[in-house]
Write a structure and sequence with these properties.
about 35% strand, about 25% helix, single chain, alpha+beta, about 140 residues
Length: about 140
């Protein structure tokens, strides 16, 4: 399971590595204005800017949690990602995770709002399952 967490972390940092860091002066004013309209606290808190697939990505902290807002060059919202507490995951999602592993552990949950205000969730979860296989690779009941 450590490998899974390591791979997830590498994927996150790999995506971060593909983004190009920008100075605030390199970000169009209409993009900064849109961010400020959505998150007025950005007047007082630092915002890190990067370029991601031709869009502008603002990284900030809201209520001690990381958040990201991705905007196109016209200042339109592409998506907003906010780290949330696992208790905000939908009950159906929690039930599915429980079915996979009653002892699952949530590592991280992000609430993603797309340009049409549709909300989805990204969750990094530690799940421990034990499998037993025969010599041909078929799953067999675990030996207790």
């Amino acid at each position: 399971m450590r490998k899974f967490i390591l791979i997830a972390a590498l994927a996150f940092f790999g995506m971060y590595g593909f983004s190009q860091q920008l100075a605030p002066s390199q970000v169009p004013q209409n993009v900064k204005d849109r961010l400020q309209a959505k998150f007025p606290q950005t007047i007082e808190i630092p915002v890190d800017w990067s370029k991601e697939q031709g869009n502008y990505k603002a990284s900030l902290t809201i209520m001690d949690s990381p958040a990201f807002m991705v905007l196109d060059s016209l200042g339109r919202t592409v998506r907003i990602e906010r780290k949330i507490h696992e208790s905000y995951l939908p009950k159906k999602a929690k039930a599915k995770l429980y079915k996979l592993d009653p002892n699952y552990t949530v590592v991280n949950v992000m609430q993603v709002t797309d340009s049409k205000e549709k909300i989805s969730y990204k969750a990094v979860v530690k799940i421990t399952n034990n499998f037993s296989f025969d010599t041909e690779g078929n799953t067999i009941p675990a030996v207790k």
